[in-house]
Design goal:
With 608 residues, this protein is α+β, with helices and mostly antiparallel strands. The chain has 16 helices and 30 strands. Strands 11, 12, 13, 14, 15, 16, 24, 25 and 28 form a nine-stranded mixed beta sheet that branches. Strands 1, 4, 5, 6, 7, 8, 9 and 10 form an eight-stranded mixed beta sheet that branches. The chain has a five-stranded mixed beta sheet with strand order 2-3-18-23-17. The N and C termini lie far apart (71 Å).
Length: 608
């Protein structure tokens, strides 16, 4: 139905959705309202709108067919964690790791910003499914936005269209996602102003989540996770709340399919903080003959119990929104293959022949570029050509190693969950948890040592439990309690949990493990452990491979390096106990007793 595309009345068959569109239109005052259908024609129209509005430029069609390059405002280049809020009724429900604001106070503030914020613009209504349309694991959202950039990216990253509205029906529930760049073309006094290439509000940004009402309100940013509200905002912050309420898991995890030479299959999820090789592992090219890795998802996993009591996972996204710098044929050949066409590049550099470039993309530096700020760039100019958080958006279907079942509405059964971080010492190459509770403990204390990107803080350990620190939509202690409860519910049918560390170094600061494709050797041992085939040795931290259990054929690795990679630094673990205790203390009485017990037992094992 499209009876009134100005006020929002009866645009769809869903009365709740129509009422909400009408309410938002009356507040934001757009010139037009458009219901998006997610079609190829609509996608092309959004690209053309961006090009004509100077937001984007076409790339060389012989180099990157049907692809565009976008340069954002320098004030709008990344997720703004300090402006991201969990607006639960109680501050304790948000917990000490989230920014909290009272729901009604935040809504009052944001209503003031939203008032008339879409004058002169079109309000796009984007019905989208997170996960295959109609899947029992999937959920539906609707994003209202005034940004063609958001529409185009959402068409790649989610399933957009009338089929979503068909599933929603007349009374279906959906997550409300409201977004505005905060740059009206007609001011409150009637003054008109010209549009800019990247509209945003450089001074005021809010990304607010309302867990009780399942709403997301975003204002002032047009970029990435601040504006593509199906991604971190819905798929993790709001979905984690829904998962706790409904008895499932919404996790910041890749999903990969691992097949051995006998054509036996295992599915593995893995959670890593940033800069720890998540996308590389999801698209890994194994070096062991006969083994195969296929990608189900590179960033987010939703897991629900199947009829057999096992956890089944879907990738709720339909595309990859990846960090470009560091991505290359050497680090991730399959990711590079995804980007050959039909992609959106944001804040990358432009080559003289109309292609994109970013740091570490090629072994040799180009002689000349136009950088992401539209300035001339040469290798000796002393600055990056691409922004460190430059991005690509590309359809998952273009990945040469995408698993055939990546869109199976029933999901794939998960055999193992991996946690890991960037640790120069203490943590072995791979450790298996004793059980689900112990694995939850390992996930709760995981973290990464900061790199040179944090000036003056190199080597400082930053805890990032389950890689969910910026993305958990409620108190992290309650999140851990939910994990423990999931294990109690399904017991031995839960996936095995492993703790991995690709980044251990020797005394001279050199990496001991080659990483990248060679990580398949660790995956093989994990596969065999799940099949009850590989041997393991018990340590205070967990179970590590027995000598000879890792398949190192064809790999040049010194024996002493392997010994160090698989050793547990007992003294280092003992020194770390006080920091774990201090980290837990901030959660007070909400910390689950199961984790208190695991920490106590860990301390005992370290003393024996």
């Amino acid at each position: 139905m499209r009876e009134d595309m100005t006020t929002g009345s009866k645009i769809t068959r869903n009365a709740q959705l129509n009422a909400w569109i009408k309410e938002v239109a009356a507040m934001c005052l757009p010139d037009n309202i458009r219901l998006c259908n997610g079609s190829a024609d609509e996608y092309q129209e959004m690209l053309s709108l961006m090009v004509s509005g100077k937001t984007a430029r076409w790339l060389n069609p012989e180099k990157r067919p049907n692809s565009i390059l976008v340069w954002s405002d320098p004030a709008d280049v990344a997720r703004v964690e300090d402006r991201t809020f969990i607006c639960s009724p109680s501050k304790d429900d948000a917990g000490p790791t989230n920014n909290w604001a009272a729901p009604e106070e935040m809504k009052q503030t944001m209503r003031g910003l939203y008032a008339g914020c879409m004058r002169g613009r079109t309000l796009y209504v984007i019905p989208f499914s997170m996960g295959p349309v109609g899947s029992p694991i999937a959920h539906i959202g609707v994003e209202l936005t005034d940004s063609p950039y958001v529409v185009a990216n959402m068409i790649i990253m989610t399933r957009v269209g009338t089929s979503v509205l068909d599933v929603l029906g007349e009374n279906g529930e959906f997550v409300r996602c409201l977004h505005s760049v905060g740059y009206p073309l007609v001011l409150a006094d009637g003054t008109q102003r010209a549009d800019v290439s990247w509209p945003c509000d450089g001074k005021q940004k809010y990304i607010s989540h309302f867990p009780e009402s399942k709403e997301i309100w975003s204002y002032g940013s047009g970029y990435g996770g601040n504006a593509l509200l199906g991604k971190k905002c819905f798929a993790l912050r709001i979905a984690s709340v829904m998962a706790r309420e409904q008895g499932w898991l919404a996790e910041h995890m890749l999903i990969l399919k691992l097949t051995n030479p006998q054509n036996e299959v295992r599915y593995i999820c893995a959670a890593f903080p940033s800069a720890c090789g998540k996308t590389n592992l999801a698209m890994l090219s194994p070096t062991i003959p006969g083994w195969k890795v296929e990608c189900v998802g590179d960033d987010i996993a939703w897991m629900k119990f199947g009829g057999d009591g096992r956890l089944y996972a879907i990738n709720p996204e339909a595309g990859f929104f990846g960090v470009a710098p560091g991505t290359s044929d050497e680090s991730n050949l399959n990711a590079m293959a995804c980007l050959t066409r039909d992609s959106i590049f944001t804040n990358c550099a432009l080559t003289d022949d109309g292609d994109v470039w970013w740091e570490q993309m090629t072994p040799r530096l180009p002689a000349h570029l136009i950088d992401w700020t539209a300035k001339e760039w040469t290798p000796d100019c002393g600055r990056n050509a691409a922004h460190p958080n430059a991005r690509f958006t590309t359809p998952a279907r273009q990945c040469p190693v995408i698993a055939p079942e990546w869109e199976d509405p029933q999901g794939v059964p998960i055999s193992a969950v991996l946690f890991g971080g960037r640790r120069a010492g203490v943590i072995p190459l791979v450790t298996e948890a004793f059980n689900w509770r112990h694995g939850t403990f390992l996930g709760s204390i995981m973290g990464s040592e900061t790199t040179a990107a944090a000036a003056g803080q190199v080597g400082t350990l930053r805890r990032d439990p389950m890689a969910m620190l910026p993305f958990c939509g409620y108190n992290m202690a309650d999140y851990w309690a939910h994990w423990l409860g999931m294990g109690e519910r399904s017991g031995a049918k839960m996936p095995r949990i492993f703790y991995v560390n690709w980044f251990r170094k020797d005394a001279e600061g050199r990496f001991l493990w080659p990483g990248y494709s060679e990580n398949c050797r660790v995956l093989k041992w994990i596969f065999e452990r799940c099949a009850g085939q590989a041997e393991a040795l018990e340590t205070p931290l967990g179970l590590i491979p027995e000598k000879g259990a890792l398949d190192l054929r064809g790999l040049s690795l010194a024996a002493d390096a392997l010994d160090e990679l698989l050793s547990v630094d007992i003294d280092g673990c003992r020194m770390e106990l006080p920091s774990i205790e201090q980290y837990y203390q901030q959660f007070g009485s909400r910390l689950p007793e199961g984790l208190r017990h695991e920490l106590k037992e860990f301390g005992k094992r370290l003393q024996s």
